TrEMBL record:
Name this protein carries in UniProt: DUF3048 domain-containing protein
InterPro entries xrefs: DUF3048_C, DUF3048_N, YerB-like_sf
Residue intervals of the DUF3048 domain: 44-173, 207-303
Source species of the chain: Actinacidiphila paucisporea
Length: 307
């Protein structure tokens, strides 16, 4: 499986500011200038290249599922709380930069609906969902649900349920084109912040740490180093309530990504105490520091939704 892991593209060498936040449906920027910039830089990574179609994949993150496959090919990786205070990942890919396989794939949650509404109807690939949530996902106008297709397969070298994988190309073709979700990028680090080597984030039964190695952040989970890296890390503090869709074992956490709150943003070995703001589900998420938008380094971003 490790041969399938695809590395992300190299970081851009020029200062990049991609198009402004837009609400509602549709895939472009706001005005003519924004559209022109969007044609040459990715909304998701700030790297050179026109926008591709978007597929998000729910990925297992318990110890038996590690190491996963394909995370270094993602544009954005979200870490989300699930039952028992454990974590699950959602890897977001631009269809122009896909690894051959991704996984292990696991089930969707209500959090995914709100989180992905800021994209332009992306594909969401998952292995299943709670019986009442599944029809909601399939009928959603904010995403295209992809589950149970011939592109899912089992790796029999691993135990179930941690062995379902996805060839993502066909799923990505069902997603909307990448749009502005509020991220901004610049090669040069902004002024301010604090030199920081390692930062941690926690959920009730999960722990992440990110260590700067001089060029990227190395990702560790539950105290163990992984093969994964990030150019940026956002620890986004969110309110967590009980989902409307319970599992057989009890309540399910629902991380709310519409609203505002505090965040810690890591880039270039520096830590910034920032704020995040997303007024409505159709809006992108703005990250600010000292009253100004804080640009990320062009490349891959991990976003931990920390309760």
């Amino acid at each position: 499986m490790s041969g399938w892991r695809a590395l992300g593209a190299a970081a851009a060498v020029a200062v990049v500011l991609v198009a402004g936040c837009t609400g509602g449906s549709g895939g472009g920027g706001g005005g003519g200038t924004a559209t022109t910039r969007a044609a040459s830089r990715s909304y998701l990574t700030g790297e050179p290249g026109t926008a591709g179609r978007v597929v998000a994949v729910k990925i297992d993150n318990v110890p038996a599922a590690r190491p996963q496959t394909g995370l270094n090919g993602a544009a954005i990786v979200y870490a989300i709380e699930v039952e028992g205070g454990l974590s699950r990942l959602m890897a977001v890919y631009d269809g122009r930069h896909l690894p051959p396989a991704v996984g292990p794939v696991r089930s969707a949650r209500q959090t995914d609906l709100q989180l992905l509404a800021q994209y332009d109807k992306p594909a969401l690939a998952f292995s299943g969902a709670q019986s009442r949530l599944l029809p909601v996902l399939k009928k959603s106008t904010d995403l295209t649900a992809v589950t149970g297709t011939k592109d899912f397969f089992r790796n029999h070298d691993r135990p179930a349920p941690h062995n379902e994988y996805l060839h993502p190309a066909h799923a990505a073709a069902k997603g909307g084109t990448a749009k502005d979700i509020g991220l901004r990028f610049a090669t040069a680090a902004p002024a301010g912040g604090t030199a920081t080597t390692t930062t941690s984030a926690r959920m009730p039964a999960a722990r992440f740490s990110f260590t700067w190695n001089g060029s990227q952040y190395k990702v560790a989970m539950d105290g163990r180093m992984s093969p994964w890296t990030a150019d940026n890390v956002i620890v986004q503090h969110v309110a967590v309530k009980e989902s409307d869709f319970h599992s057989r074992t009890g309540p399910v956490p629902y991380s709310q990504t519409v609203g505002h709150g505090s965040a810690v943003i890591l880039r270039n070995g520096r830590s910034y105490d920032a704020t995040w703001d997303r007024p409505a589900a159709s809006d992108g998420t703005a990250y600010t520091f000292d009253g100004r938008t804080l640009p990320l380094h062009p490349g891959r971003t991990w976003i931990v939704l920390e309760p």
